[in-house]
Amino acid sequence: MKSLTRLLPYLARYKSTLYLGLLAVIVSNLFTVATPWFIGEAIDELKRGLEKGSLQHTDLLWYAGIVVGFAVVAGVMLFFTRQTIIVVSRKIEYDLRNDFLSHIQRLPLSYFQNTPTGDLMALATNDISAVRNVLGPGIMYPADTLMTLSMSLVLMFVKDWQLTLLALIPMPLVSYAVYYLGKVIHEKFNERQEQYSVLTTKAQENLSGARVVKAYVREEYEIEQFRKASWDYFKKNLVLAKAQSVMWPLMFILVGLSIIITIYVGGLKVISGEMTIGTLTAFMTYLSLLIWPMIAFGWVTNMWQQGAASMKRLAKIYDTVPTIRDTEQTDHGIDSIKGDIEFKNVNFTHGSAHTPTLQNINLKIPQGSTLAIVGYTGTGKSSLVNLIPRLYDISDGELLIDGIEIKKIPVEVLRKNIGYVPQETFLFSESIAENIRYGDDDAQRELIHEAAEVSQIAKDVADFPQRFETMLGERGITLSGGQKQRTSIARAVLRRPNILILDDALSAVDTYTEETILDRLRNVMKGRTSIIIAHRISTVKDADNIIVLNNGKIVEQGTHEQLVTLNGIYAGLYQKQLLEKELEEL
Amino acid sequence: MSQIQDDEILGKAYDAQLMRRLVIYLRPYKWQVLLAIFLSIAVSGLEAVRPYFTKIAVDVNIANKDSKGLLTTTILFLLLMILRGVVQYYNAYITQKIGQQTIFDLRMELFTHLQKLSLKFYDKNPIGRLITRVTNDVEVLNEMFSSGIVMVFSDVFMIVGIVWFMFSMNAELALLSLSVLPFLIYGTFLFRKKAREAYREVRLYIARINTFMQEHITGMLVDQIFNREKKAFDEFEKHNAGHRGANIKSIFYYAIFYPGVDLIGAVSVGLIIWYAGGNALQGSVTIGTVMAFLQFNEMFWRPIRDLSEKYNIMQTAMASSERIFKLLDDTSFIKESDRPQLFQNVAGKIEFKNVWFSYNSEEGNENWVLKNVSFTINPGETAAFVGHTGAGKTTIISLLSRFYEIQKGEILIDGINIRDVSLSDLRKNIAVVLQDVFLFSGDIKGNVNLGNDEISLEQIKSACRVVGVDKFIDAMPKNYDEEVKERGSTLSVGQKQLLSFARALAFNPKILVLDEATSSVDTETEILIQSAIQKLLSNRTAIVIAHRLSTIQNADTIVVMHKGEIREMGTHQELLLNKGIYHKLYLLQYKEQEAA
After folding, report:
1. Three-state SS string across B93-145, please?
2. I need a labelling partner for A144 at 20 to 30 A (CA). Which of A278, A319, B326, B580 fits?
3. Between the CA of residue B248 and those of A92, A93, B192, what are the distances in Å?
4. Could you tell me if residue B415 is inside a domain?
5. Is the CB of B93 less than 8 angstroms away from the CB of A242?
6. Contact status, residue A213 vs residue B115, Cβ threshold 8 Å
């Protein structure tokens, strides 16, 4: 429950509305609870009239008017209760969700690599809505319940305290039963949901592996497996159904017990003349008023427990401190960088890995030069370039930009000056223009077209149904690997970066187009720094400096000619490349 | 932004044709259904009789100062309550059970049906949508099968029961207190409609929030690197605010509706009291009647609310069942031969005779993927297929297992047309190893024998030993019981390759189809893979889409494909002498491997 105290600042924002809501709860209850009193009076009046033998339509009209009038006031107040307390809960839900996103936006790349997207999604949806339940119904019902309960009890006690006590005997049982069964149902519900995801996974695997299933004639087996999972799900559902089915009948029996006690004991009192028939009627009405508060009591307790558990999970995220951010050592006077990069004895180890990914990297990339990085998969090429926009921080050594320690440069300034094309291209399901505009939000249409021209995606775009406004993804078209890479290059080029990083960003582009792109890039990047990771020699051969990485170390370094004569890894790759070129010309 | 997925489109709430088909699924449980209907009527009756007891207690027992009679009435009342509770429990449980049994049957039918559909069907339909059919769409029907059909009886009987009791007590008072009913019914259905619309809007925004979150968590790198956090946040805020707005709208409807119901109830109470005041003297209204009516008054609105909910349930159920039935009616099966030929002790001779094939079977619109392809592979021999991407190599191996039907020509194994044998006999004799290895979640041994009990643990182990993946398995804590995650995410590319070889070996077929993976692996694994391939190929007929020079050189025949046609065929030496396409390919791609 302690975790819920974190919500107080959120509640404080809507303080006055909430007070108004509570006031509405009180007033609406005053009028609701008073009604049975008048119904009781009316019955007594009726009885008196019958005994006296004089009764007019108008005699009871006053009571009828009160019942309706009170219902109007109570109804209006109830309306205000919902319009304040429940509406506030939705507003806080909105705040919480916004804060959630803005917080995770500050977390480093490594966090997302270690946290399944599904977990974060569950937090943003299920957990926040569990917390919302506490804030809305979780506040409204207890307030309501407390009011109804205390007022009805006072009135009932005034009428007849003995009968009140007797009639109330089953009521705590109602609360406890709801609380207990609610817990069981929640538990069984979760178990059922888990089995449902097992079932979904099973279907998903079977359908995506249809080819293997058919090739090895495993259909019967798969059906049997699915039947088992499905049957398990069936059984879990029945267990849940049992728990759910018991809830209401039990409730009715317990509440019925109260009514029976009232009728019998109250009836005896009426017979002996200790009580009027009107009071008995009022009692019955009060009891029916108390049913819902008793149920709500147990129900709300569960809600609070679940909300607290969810808040605890959310707090864990909110308490994760972003590791890559501006600190005291940041020099906020720096507002741009030129692009002179230097690695001095840099070592880098991923999170909790045992072996370092990069070892003893010494490398100078002067402003305006082009560096190319080659090497086998998994040798640390991507890790090396990821250090420059501070997607990761170096473990030790020094990384200098323009001669300044990288951590002194505000993260935003640093990244603003870098155009980065990641190895795995990621485009959003928005229009092509929007995706390119990611590079520079203020870019005019002409600049976007220009960038698209440089990256050679413009020609493809011309064939799309709505040109640059063509949507990508589910709601639009699917791009080929090469098209994705070229769009992603346009995005980076658009920001006219002082440092451009292409992480194997031309792998799906044919060699002819690649040459054109590189040619255009040379123009655009004149005087700026470029870093290119590639497997093809054709991509890298014109670079000012080429390094070959192997097992996290720089093993060869120099220009194309120098490396070819070195006769090492690079020369080997070059041989193969030559032959491939011949193939192109066949 | 108003695009709604077709899964969300709702139509009418009742469709006689769909309903007739749905009711068929209830047939095996007809006795349970009858029992449930009987029980729900009983619950309604017992519920409606309750206020009657109050009347007896007040008008008969209390009015006559009969305390003994009061006790009897109360005890009867108590027994009635307990009986009602028990009946209600069984009713609720049985209704749920009926629903669950029915959707279990339907789900199995759907899944079994999906297993029979051909690959062509899978090529056309996104997996995500099929999963929704099997899971969510079936789930939606549960509510209709359980509460939807049975509970309607209960609600209707409840209303009828209350009305009957009321009229039998005092017709005039009944009419008077029922006079508010039209308002209640109209209000409830209007509220349902509004609330449903608001709810759909809420769901639409939830979907947008989820899509946005999903995309921007996956693409967080891009947001961060391009300083787009603020921009993305602003956009998210819009969806979030929309969600808030839709919810507030729905709160408004609830805020109007619930007090409204209370008010209508109060008006009815007022009418009862007012009427009683005028008529009690004539003796037509007793105090007990008034009290009973006050209770009836409270009981009315629950069945009305329930009935209005049924509309929702039926509407979604109709939409879901329509999609499910559409899938069940799709019969793109590979047609099995009526009288399949015996297919045993296969030697493994493969012949393609003038085979033409197109993925698009529409006549006149064919985009031929294979054009007049003919070749023969003798038992025990290996044929290596080489050529560029899109040359038709993969298609050839799909056709051999009869995943697709050819348009012209014939494919023979041991001289028998593959159309004349049963699909399972055919495929049991062919092991397929694909480039992109598909592993199932489960354990290692299950991924080797694919749940085939005829393949013992010993055979699994020996297959793993032969392909050389045993050392790695032995190094794992639970060995052959080691868990394999979805798609084998914890295993390396090389390990997955080797496991798929072990799988093929364990099934020990006469014919092997191998699509060699191109992905680069470390030298050690590469050596393992090469030697495993040699072992796989020995003693069987094999079709290999080859990328490794060692595989190609050792092949008995090399088939060079180009744009759906066979351009060259022969041994390595013959083709080299030929100085054709293979010669060039060899120089460009494979010589390098030889050097390494």
Report:
1. HHHHHHHHHHHHHHHHHHHHHHHHECHHHHHHCCHHHHHHHHHHHHHHHHHHH
2. A278
3. 12, 12, 16
4. no
5. yes
6. yes
B321 lies in some domain: yes
Residues 6+ apart with CB under 8 A from A241: B92, B93, B96, B97, B100
Give the tokens for residue B334. 């590979």
Q: Does the residue A23 lie in any domain? A: yes
Residues of chain B neighbouring A205 (CB-CB closer than 8 A): 440-441, 486
Residue B121 CB: number of other CB atoms within 10 A? 17
Asked whether the beta carbons of residue A438 and residue B61 sit closer than 8 angstroms, the reply is no
Number of domains in chain B: 1
Domain ranges, residue A158: 2-318
A63: domain CATH number is 1.20.1560.10
Cβ of B592 within 8 Å of Cβ of A579? The answer is yes
Which residue range is the domain that position B306 belongs to? 6-329
| Pick from A82, A210, A438: CB nearest B226 | A438
Check B88 against A241: CB less than 8 A apart: no
Helix and strand numbers (H, E) in chain B are 24, 12
For residues B122 and B127, give the distance between their C-alpha atoms in angstroms, rounded to a whole number: 7
Touching check for A223 and chain B: CB below 8 Å?
Answer: yes
Which amino acid is it at A63? Answer: Y
Cα–Cα distances in Å, from B576 out to B164, B556, B568? 98, 14, 11
Rounded-to-integer distance, Cα B209 and Cα B242, Å: 10
Chain A interface, best mutation among B91, B223, B251, by max A CB count within 10 A: B251
Residue A449 within a domain: no
Is residue A360 in a domain?
A: no
Best of B62, B261, B343 to disrupt the A interface (most A CBs within 10 Å) is: B62
Q: How far is B347 from chain A (nearest CA, A)?
A: 19
Q: Is residue A127 part of a domain?
A: yes
In this structure, the strands spanning A499-503 and A418-421 are parallel
- What is d(CA B574, CA B585) in angstroms, rounded to the nearest whole number? 14
Judged by a CB distance cut-off of 8 A, whether residue A475 touches chain B is: yes
Where is A61: in which H helix or E strand?
A: helix A57-81
Structural domain includes residue B232: yes
CATH number of the domain where residue B63 is located: 1.20.1560.10
In order, the DSSP letters of B469-483 are -HHHHHTSTTGGG-E
- Tell me whether residues B108 and A580 touch, CB distance under 8 A: no
Overall number of domains in chain A:
1
> What are the backbone dihedrals phi and psi of residue A339, each rounded to the nearest 5 degrees, phi first?
115, 30
User: Digits of tens for pLDDT over chain A (586 positions)?
Assistant: 677 888 888 889 999 999 999 899 889 888 888 888 888 888 788 777 777 776 666 677 888 888 889 889 988 998 998 899 889 999 999 998 888 888 888 888 878 877 777 778 878 887 888 888 888 888 888 888 888 888 888 888 887 888 888 888 887 888 888 888 888 888 888 888 788 878 888 888 888 778 788 777 788 888 888 899 889 999 998 998 888 888 878 887 888 888 888 888 888 888 888 888 878 877 877 777 777 777 777 778 778 888 888 888 888 888 888 887 778 888 888 888 888 888 888 888 877 667 788 888 888 888 888 888 887 766 788 888 888 888 888 888 888 888 888 888 888 888 888 888 887 777 887 888 888 888 777 877 888 888 888 888 888 788 777 888 887 765 566 777 778 888 888 888 888 888 889 888 877 776 677 778 888 888 888 888 889 888 777 778 788 888 888 888 888 888 888 887 888 778 777 776 665 555 444 4
Task: State the Cα torsion A146-A149-A150-A152 to the nearest 10°.
Answer: 150
The SS3 of residue B65 is coil
The residue in chain A having the minimum alpha-carbon distance to the alpha carbon of residue B88 is: A249
Residues of B in contact with A244 (CB under 8 A): 92, 96
